[in-house]
Amino acid sequence: MWMDTKTEAKEASGNRASLRRCVLSGLLLCTGDMEHLDKYMQEKLFVMQLVVWGLRGVTRVILANNPLSGALILAALYWASPWQALLGTLGVLVSTLTAVIMGQDSAEVSGGLHGFNGMLVSLLMGVFSSAGDWYWWLLLPACLGSATCVFLSSGLSPVLERWDLPVAVFPFNIIIVLYLLCTGPDNPYFPHHPTTPPGLLEPNGTELIAVEVMLGIPLSVGQIFACGALGPSLLILGAVLLYSPLLAAHALLGSAVGTLVGLSMAVRHDSLYSGLSGFNGALGCMAVGGLFFTFSWRTHLYAIASAFLSAYSDIALSNLLGTIGLPACSWAATLTTSLMLLLTGSLASYRIPIGRVMAPEHNLCSHSQWEAGDTADRESTDV
């Protein structure tokens, strides 16, 4: 009797351990780049493939590449503003379909690399529009701007590839500035809100609310998608966490650095409270802290430096462009990251080639294998 009870206890313990392993394996399949999903979708209908490509494009905005994370981000955007989320969805689909029609590289299309610029252009058109929500005429420039991003990306790619640089969001930044310059605040068809420089002093702004400043840190992550609501911003941060905990940690770190920079430069309080002062710092920190560089204590410090430089550059560009009513968007983080990727010296050995960039945890595991392979190649070519 005692032996039977002991055997049953062992079997129950083994079943629980097996269940935990299955659950853990299932969770791991949902993290990272989910390459297995691409193999599964090869024989599926084009519409289903397009959905996955679009969701990957959504996450590319925040430097991730996971369709489940993309679904969470879309849910957050629809939670915050259904109209702006609809514009973003339209933008990512139009730009992806344009890339398919133009015959762009299939790996780039399926990886969402031709969708995220179109999404950002459409989102920001809705954010800056002063015509209000559900202004259906805005769909016309949103579609045209999203499609144009693919042409710009295709033209910039051969130029930037010479230095192994990503196209990033250069097309988005160019198109949205051109659109706002063409329309103007008083355009009868597509009016938009003029931008106020963040360094403009407030008449009665002498005291800060510490809680609001702290809440601005997670809001900075949401502001990457022009989302200024706390709940959706936390959901977006959770989507990044699903893709890569290391990337999520650097997103918060960069946001905190950007907020600190805003405090040091005495920017307007609403920039601190809404997270606008921190999102460029978050992008700069994420790009260097494990995505384009293998994570180490050196590259971690380098990521912090990148966050500081991105945040200070953003304030400078915002004050400059704000004088003519234009936003700085993500020019600061884009230019800073491109500069960081061109570095030389010992830190260059941590640089990950653009074609090999994956989730930071995967990059960390694979870096030693790449180094071993490169060493073997060099030894095999020695005479």
Automatic annotation (TrEMBL):
Chain ranges passing through the membrane: 134-156, 163-181, 273-294, 301-324, 330-350
Membrane topology note: Multi-pass membrane protein
Subcellular location: Cell membrane
Keywords: Cell membrane, Membrane, Transmembrane, Transmembrane helix, Transport
Reactions the enzyme catalyzes: urea(in) = urea(out)
GO function terms (MF aspect): urea transmembrane transporter activity
InterPro entries per UniProt: Ammonium/urea_transptr, Urea_transporter
One term under GO cellular component: plasma membrane
Signal sequence, start to end: none
Main location class: membrane
Superkingdom of the source species: Eukaryota
Similarity section: Belongs to the urea transporter family.
Protein name per the record: Urea transporter
Organism of origin: Sander lucioperca (Pike-perch)
Organismal lineage: Eukaryota, Metazoa, Chordata, Craniata, Vertebrata
Gene for this chain: si:dkey-183c6.7
